[in-house]
Amino acid sequence: xxxxxxxxxxxxxxxxxxxSAEIFxxxxxxxxxxxxxxxxxxxxxxxxxxxxxxxxxxxxxxQRRARVMMKFVDLLNRDMDKLAEALSKEHGKTFPxxxxxxxxxxxxxxxxxxxxxxxxGEFSEGAGPGIDIYSIRQPLGVVAGITPFNFPAMxxxxxxxxxxxxxNAFILKPSERDPSVPMMLxxxxxxxxxxxxxxxxxxxxxxxVDAILDDPDIEAVGFVGSTAIAKYIYGRGCSNGxxxxxxxxxxxxxxxxxxxxxxxxxxxxxxxxxxxxxxxxMAVSVAVPVGEETADRLIEKLIPKVEALKIxxxxxxxxxxxxxxxxxxxxxxxxxxxxxxxxxxxxxxxDGRNFRMQGYEDGFFVGACLFDNVTKDMDIxxxxxxxxxxxxxxxxxxxxxxxLPMSHEYGNGVAIFTRDGDAARDFASRINIGMVGINVPIxxxxxxxxxxxxxxxxxxxxxxxxxDGFRFYTRTKTVTSRWPSGIxxxxxxxxxxxx
Length: 499
Ligand code: NAD
What we know:
Its EC number is 1.2.1.27. The chain is of the alpha/beta class. It has helices spanning 40-58, 62-78, 80-91, 95-111, 115-118, 154-165, 180-191, 206-214, 227-239, 262-274, 292-307, 328-344, 379-382, 398-407, 421-430, 466-472, 485-488; strands at 2-4, 6-8, 11-13, 20-25, 30-36, 123-128, 131-139, 142-146, 169-173, 199-201, 218-224, 243-247, 252-256, 284-289, 347-350, 369-372, 389-392, 410-411, 413-417, 435-438, 454-455, 458-459, 474-482.
């Protein structure tokens, strides 16, 4: 049993609220530790601390700030296995997948080494007689990130790396389900040379989140989690005058055209549908084969591959395709949704509901499930299941296929598998979804592009990482200057124009 407190002022501190949450080992179902849940007063103290440290950090030149990110990248590589192990133990994902989680965050840290370049402004000489105009990007001050359980390394880094490289102080409120890795990341940032108080991890639940949303000294909030909470965060944060970006849930479709390479499409679906037990916002959860003949070929090839998926604890290393779900509650919810699909008349062609992991009978495992004949009106089609469940929704032609993701509530990711450039091009242009894959099942953009869904998958107008990461955590100031001869000619009383 271990206890996780907070990371404030450059060190681990114990929680003082008297409230805590249990941390489970998802593979065994046992409680392995506890995490403190911050009170308003603890959040306020962390913000005060961050506020005091921020001006000196903002005044540190961007090249020196970038060097901290450089060193941080080295340390992440040094501690990769340690971080991945801690991550798998609390999240349940496989060890190679946990390393991927750290790696995709590391790549954002790597991108943020470009801070001096990303923070450059613009300059127009001679915009009027003796007048120059220039713009500068300045940090906001104290900013925050509230992150989900499913990527406890990557998503915190998506948020704090650009914010800190830009000169802000940061309050991270990670998921209470798997809090160890965010604490380790904060320690590594200190080891990399970050001054105390610039990155603070305040653990907690709704209470800590509300304290962030209402804190007058927090200027911006970046959120990732489920859509209902994203909407809430966006509404409350904006009404308090903060800058807010809030990314939500997903239901990602993959369209399989009749000319697609079926073996490649099936492999793609297996990885994207069942990897991380489906607990990814970019998981493919609906396969849309075009035409009955394509659908029959797809199902025939999918069934044996789904049945052959290897499930187990992270300690089994490369021998396992996916692990348990994160909590007992998540396991019950997913099993309930599979029951609902059967009631609604979808055809459950692979039934993983009775899966039991030998030696881990109390773990939060769910076996792989595959539904055929899923239709638009069903709850299992409308709802984000977030488990190892893939639905096949048959479409008679391309137009019917594209209409499914277009009319769905969510708009995070989507993919098309085809050999036809014309279809792929039309699809990429018309689809109303933020991230599109062409013969690529999980089109997660690399660190130097931006990540963000549309419709109910994202609220706010700037994406995460890439250039938008810096834009979100900075503001532009535009300076119009005239030196010094303009003044000696005397005052002007009419508005200056360029005529
Ligand atoms: P969640 O919404 O339950 O929790 C996210 C964060 O919000 C956590 O830090 C949690 O403590 C906090 N929170 C939970 N309930 C709250 C409440 N009532 N009031 C205030 N704060 C609250 O999400 P989760 O289960 O941790 O993560 C899974 C979800 O995140 C899925 O829906 C998934 O699609 C989504 N997700 C989206 C993206 C994206 O970029 N769009 C990426 C990863 C995950």
